[in-house]
Amino acid sequence: MTTQLTRIKRRYGDQPLGGYLAAMATYGAAVSAAAIGARVRGGRLPDLRVADVALVTGATFSLSRLVAKDAVTSPIRAPFTRFEEPAGAAEVNEKVTSGGEAHVVGELVSCPFCLSVWIASGLGAGLVFAPRATRLVAGVFTAVAGANLLQLGYDAAKKASGNN
Fold first, then answer.
1. Strands 81-88 and 91-96
2. What φ, ψ does residue 14 adopt, rounded to 5°?
């Protein structure tokens, strides 16, 4: 088994496979704990409506961009990343600087795609344990996503008309 692990490590180079494994285990444990908690509580799973999926989709998009890219939330990412350049529309590009297991945290908190899985799962758990509050929070962040799209569309229309 040690030989197999050494071969895998050699093929993946500097990739923090142990950190990725820990992240997957943490995610699995959190989802399992939520499922067990729902079962113990005797709650039923909610009927998932198209409107709920749309709401959670918008909120997941908005929250993942907010945490991973927004300039204001850069203090969350700063221990694991380095500022590289502005990315427009109040977003920044950062490079993960931490090594080892902390590198995985840096990748997670600076990648909206990576965060989406965790955020959507959290909102899904919220629909089980506190559906009204979750719908409120999801509604707010879906509205933020919609407003951001309208802001970008407005700016594009201004540029297209020559009114910068």
1. antiparallel
2. -85, 5
Please check the confidence at residue 68 and state whether its pLDDT lies above 80.
yes
Window from 72-76, 87-91, 145-149 with minimum mean pLDDT: 87-91
Listed by start position, the domains of the chain span 2-161
As given in the structure block, the two tokens for residue 11 are 């093929």
Over residues 54-67, the pLDDT tens digits come to 999 999 999 999 99
User: How many angstroms separate the first and last alpha carbons of the chain?
Assistant: 63
62-98 per-residue burial string, b: 16 or more CB within 10 A, e: under 16: bbbbbbbbbeeeeeebeebbeeeeeeeeebbebebeb
Q: How far apart are CA 130 and CA 39, in angstroms?
A: 15
